[in-house]
Structures are given as C-alpha cells and as structure tokens.
Amino acid sequence: MKFPRYVAAAAGAFLVVFGLWAFFGPHSFFEQIASFKPYNRHLMHDIGAFQVGVGATLLIALVWSDALAVALAGAGVGSLMHAAAHWWDKDLGGKSSDPYTLTFIAIVIVIAGGMRHRQLREGAPAGDG
Fold first, then answer.
1. Is residue 102 a contact partner of residue 83, using CB atoms and an 8 Å limit?
2. N or C: which end of the chain has fewer CB within 10 A?
3. What are the boundaries of each domain within the chain?
4. What angle is formed at CA 123 by the lines to CA 119 and CA 124, rounded to 5 degrees?
C-alpha cells in the first residue's frame, strides 16, 4: 500500500516547511498562522524546531528502514534546532545553563544516530541496538 508513504511524504514536507518558517520567521509565522497572543519569539522557535524534527523523522523513514536509526536522526534534527533556539534566545530568559545542556543532549543523540547508521552500514542486524 502506497498511501502511508504518500501521507508521510506530504506531512513530512509540510511540517519541515512550516517548521522552518516558524523558526526563521517567527513573527511572520505568528501573524499568519499562530496568532495566539501574546507573541513569544522563543515559543515560535521551539514550535519550529519540533515541527522540523517530526517532519524530518517522517521523511527519513521513507528512506531508512531501521526504526532506531530513524528515531535518532529525527530527534537529532529537532534537538539541534531546539539547542540553537536556546542559544539564539538566551537573552529572553530561561536558565543560563539551558543552551549548554540542550546542546549536550543534541550532540549525544546525533552521535548515537551516527553510530547506529554506521552499525547498519557494516551489516549489523536491525534488532542489534
């Protein structure tokens, strides 16, 4: 059945495009799509980061068949963008440790994803995590 693949492709593309809009054009995204007052730039950045992460996961799942590799790759994308948002918005509040903590978490997820991808390329069985 191709319908699930079509839905994953369309939803993934939609989420990535709208997520990038929210992340890189937060005020425009707020005015056009998410006008729940009051405006909060960091919230728009977070929305964008997580939409891109979910969209990337759907798109990656169209090419990779290993669930753990797909999950780590998608979570890595979203986590890297989330960390970037906290660096970008550190003047808006939050804990001073947030950018460092979130960057560390994102890097660990990306490293684990890279290790999993390498395992699969080297022929490890899919269930060998």
1. yes
2. N
3. 3-121
4. 55
Buried b (16+ CB within 10 A) or exposed e, 54-85: bbbbbbbbeeeebebbbbbbbbbbbbbbbbbb
Nearest to 86 by CA among 94, 76, 74, 78: 94
Task: Please write the tens of the pLDDT for every residue from 36-54.
Answer: 899 999 999 999 999 999 9
Residue 115, both tokens: 């290790």
Give 13's contacts (C-beta < 8 A, 6+ positions apart). 55, 59
Alpha helical stretches, state H, the chain: 3-24, 26-32, 41-61, 67-88, 98-121
Q: What is the pTM of this model?
A: 0.89
Is the pLDDT at 86 greater than 90? The verdict is yes
